Amino acid sequence: MIITKTPFRISFFGGGTDHPAWFKENGGRVLATTFDKYCYISTRPLPPFFDHKFRVVYSNIENINSISEIQHPSVREVLKYYNSSKGLEIHHDGDLPAKSGLGSSSSFTVGLIHAINAMHGVYKSPNQLAKEAIHIEQDLIKECVGSQDQISAAYGGFNEIEFFKDGTFSVEPLLVNVERKQNLNDHLMLFFTGISRFSSDVAESQVANMSNCLSQFHELHDMTREGSSILTSSVSLDEFGLLLDKSWAIKKTLSSMISSSSIDEMYQSAKNAGAIGGKVLGAGGGGFVLFFVKPQDQNKVKNALKNLTFVPFSFENTGSKVVVYQPNGF
Hints:
alpha+beta; Ribosomal Protein S5, domain 2; Alpha-Beta Plaits; nine-stranded mixed β-sheet; 11 helices; 38% helix
């Protein structure tokens, strides 16, 4: 049996510029971190005693005999990509809900690629894991998704990721003083709105409207460097919260699907209670929302958003890793 543990991510700035429709023309850049909530994938050879060849367990259970019958798109395309011929059982467990803006789909794909390779005794670097996950999601599944989630899931940590016009990327860990990084963590609050959605649907609406939002995308791109500069300098961290607020105001103009009246009301309630800034994570439309709040004001924000689920978290630096490796005799 192999079990992989792959982190979810929080993207602060530059989201949207990591989509190939944008960065292959203009270049892209994002500032993001992984945190201590994870996707777990377990895989094992399926003993030859069953009337099915593949068993896939997630929010559904699939018992099938052919890869082409698999309904879960990531599982189907990963197994096709690796030409898996032997029986296999795959289980998924996640610390947080799927379709919620934390890059969970890409964490799943990266974790599954990692597990399949580990079963065959093959090591894949974070760079290889990210590239294969991007290829599978964008080219094989043909989802309208960006490229940052796969990279964050594979590498882990607090990074500035740059996307080049030729389709390549670079990952630069952000060198932040340990105390300042913890201070940032202490100012961030994560809430679940209770709204799940397919990020690719929201992303498609952004891509379709991209030509009408050139100035906004350029500004979102530049905010990545500005956010990094704030964290690596000695200016007040409040500036980071204010920049999040500005970024969210711009992001909402990219598509009518990114926000809603209920999300706007929730956001304003948090600000009225003391939040300096924030954003809906991922493509938007629901899922998780992040707020920058001074520690002394956080109880007021919790009370203002008492109908939402508050999720404490800490930054993490590991990226996807194999946590259990137990060879199976079948």
